[in-house]
Amino acid sequence: MGRIVLNRDRCKACYLCVDACPKKVLGADNQVNALGYYPVTVSNPEECIGCAMCARVCPDIAIEKVYR
Amino acid sequence: MEQLVYKKPDSIKDDFKISFCPGCDHGTAVKLVAEVLDELGVRENTIGIASVGCSVFSYDFFNVDIVEAPHGRSMAAATGVKRSKPDKVVFTYQGDGDLASIGLAETIHAMTRGEKVTAICINNTTYGMTGGQAGPTTLIGQVTTTTTSGRKAELSGYPLKISEILKEVDGTAYVARVTLDSPAAIMNAKKCIKKAFEAQIKGLGTGFVEILSTCPTNWKMTPQEAHARVRGEMSEVFKPGVYKDKVSEAL
User: Fold this and answer.
1) Would you say residue B45 has pLDDT above 80?
2) Can you tell me whether residue B183 is helix, strand or coil?
3) Structural domains in chain B?
4) Domain A3-67 in CATH 3.30.70.20
5) Which of A59, A61, A68 comes nearest B2 by C-beta?
6) N or C: which end of chain A has fewer CB within 10 A?
């Protein structure tokens, strides 16, 4: 079981993390953020294994912390 | 009991503002350099040299002292900083338009002198900040705003292979070319950046890492398509790998 801390107002919606996640935990939000993008959101939190792949590929450090 | 397995590096400012376009590998590269500074425990003792290009805003996110160098002259500025403060860890963060074009002379001569600094070069085959003009690393056939029907060798030459040139320079201790197109590639890139810093910390010579990066905005691609291009036609011309490694030999 893992958990990520996501700063949705830093996300620029490149969705590289969505592709990197091996468990399909992440998806796109339907509400825009402060930057005007549709940011990433945690759509399947119970599937997260805390591998931190999403945080490693995020170019904007929007995923600030990962717990396992 | 849950454990913290990843956090924002301390070498990135708390109120950082990543100024790059969505999906640009620059952000990942900055983060890796910061992670390496954290792991080596040298953040308080480091001076960075920013360049001109998309990397110009380095002082907005690196939590170290930054000197802003004129276009291309980062390695010259790094030489001055390192020679006046030899106990500091000094690195430059440059694009290919800065390091491989206008700053090629400064880069090669600093490395010929074996300056104990680390140079990080982001190669995205174009001038990103100014709107996607052809650069020295632009691939043959690549369409840019100044090569509208594709780069032609007979008109503007061949792409400059900077790692292959710098490995022949005697002063370099570590030369590698890496990509950032997958989590595994990112982990490998971090190892290479760490060795490039160890090259100067151990006093072996200049450490150099060329990072094949994406420019989704000027390539007019999605971040995913841009990574596919890095894996495909870019890696065919600019072959990733470790070209010179005196750091492992010295251990």
Assistant:
1) yes
2) helix
3) 25-130+159-250 (3.40.50.970)
4) yes
5) A68
6) N
